[in-house]
Amino acid sequence: MANTYTGAGGTIVVIDSGWSSSWNVGRLVYQYDFANGDADARNPNADAHGALVTSSILSQAPDVGIISLKVMPDGSNSAEGATIEQALQWVAANASAYNIVGVNLSLAGGSAPAETTTILSDELASLAAQRVLVSAAAGNAGQNGTATDVSYYAADHNVICVSASTGDGALPGWSQRNAGITDLCADGTAIALTDLTGRTLTVNGSSFSTPAVTAAVALAQQEAIHLRGSALTQDEFLSLARETGTAIGTTGYTDLNTPALLAKIAQLYTAPATGTTTETAAATPVTPVSTNAAPTTAASTIVVNAKGTMAGGVNAHFTVLVDGKAIGEATVGTAVKNYSFATELTAGTDHTVQIRYDNDTYINGQDRNLTVGTVTVNGHSYAATDSAVTYDKGAFDGKDVVAGQSNLWWNGTLAVHADKSLFGTHAAALQTAELQAADSVWSHAIAGHAAVDTASGWSEIAAVHAQYAAHDGLLFDPSAVHHDLAA
């Protein structure tokens, strides 16, 4: 099955040297320069490292939103660790507001022969808890394969450590890797990137292996949210990526295979088509029996009455699902409001409406919580404490299920078991006009996909080629890093 996912609906944060006007920035949704403390993350260098990294991501996930956080002063290849930490703090505080699914750290510096903690560990743990997956470059000081370390920040447990491969079953000598730290490999050799003028640069390094994994994160999370209603955890993503990846000889390392990864997610979370049969030998012909047409569906409206408490400047976020399928999402305010969602549901059958709270956290003494007053299904209001409502604490797995409650102190799913009488062919229609006239805030649909921008020029390879300049030497000061272009 061809991949129909393009990253739409999600956002990737690129923490690097900024963007350049000569490269595609049409997907830019936010920018900030933490090196200079202003809202312009543009780099005057036409071929800034951050612009090339962003181009690589967009070439594989063309509809993902991009946030550019600049951490390097103009004309410098280095960034202070404290500056990178500020950028990650911003991401942790704004992940829900911008639908951030991943972070790209194509930065290298320091030497870590085992998993380690750094000044970034708190922020990385917070992002992992929010299912924001951080991909970090292992580095390019492989010393002809003799080195057994990776870049300092890639060694954190809560990042996906990416080592460069040749893309055809081998590891280049300059590729840093460690069997106990490297999570995935991806092609980092002779990667062709084309700018807005049609000029092509050929780049190398784990800086350009990492965007392949970051793009795969965007596609996989879009698919997972669409099919199962929730994003993948880092462990889930890595387990599936390793299972579907390509073994690099007998090294024990695995190359990313994005199409196979997406196919596996589809296999796991897509129910088999109804009416399928298995062929048997010498089957006796059976006279076809007339069946009814497809089940009748009816427009339905679900209204969630809710508010939240903020932490880190971000309020509570929830996703609405019906029978496990996401139909919309919203970030609440501090005042009670009605959040309305429209969908088509099978008439004459019971349905379970699920309100999944997914960004609980505690920051600097502030506890983020979601409060749900009522859930109204086609005009029938269920209080959060109604006997038909349950609360599945933590993961949506059928464990730790308790009676419904209004105050959701932890991530979890409030499930409303709605009676089939609410889903007649006319019941929803009678309520729609009334609900639309209320103080509802209509959320955007999760499942929608924007069209791929074929005019962006990313897929076109021009005749002009230029090797991106090699940078010798990596900084080994853990307080500073630079981007890791391989020699």
Overview of the molecule:
This protein is of the alpha/beta class and 487 residues long. It is 18% helix and 29% strand. The protein has seven helices and 29 strands. The strands form seven sheets. Strands 2-3-1-5-7-8-9 form a seven-stranded parallel sheet, sandwiched between helices. Strand 21 (369-377) and strand 22 (380-383) form a beta hairpin. Helix 2 (81-94) runs parallel beside helix 3 and helix 5 packs across helix 6. The longest helix has 19 residues, at 210-228. The chain is globular, with a radius of gyration of 24 Å. The two termini are 38 Å apart. The model is unreliable at 271-294 and 425-487 (pLDDT under 50).
Question: In a nutshell, what does this entry contain?
Answer:
This protein has helices spanning 49-60, 81-94, 121-129, 210-228, 234-244, 258-269, 427-436; strands at 11-16, 28-33, 65-70, 78-80, 100-105, 107-108, 133-137, 160-165, 184-187, 191-194, 200-203, 246-247, 254-255, 297-309, 317-322, 325-331, 337-346, 351-357, 362-363, 366-367, 369-377, 380-383, 389-393, 401-403, 407-408, 412-418, 440-442, 465-467, 480-483. It is an alpha/beta fold and 487 residues long.
- According to DSSP, the number of beta strands is 29
Percent helix range: 10-25%
Oligomer: single chain
Number of H- or I-type helical stretches = 7
- Classification by helices and strands: alpha/beta
Strand content: 25-35%
The termini sit apart by 38 Å
Low-confidence stretches: 271-294, 425-487
What global shape is seen? globular
Give the neighbour order of strands across the main sheet: 2-3-1-5-7-8-9
Average pLDDT for all residues: 82
Based on CA atoms alone, the radius of gyration comes out at 24 Å
Q: Describe the largest sheet.
A: 7 strands, parallel
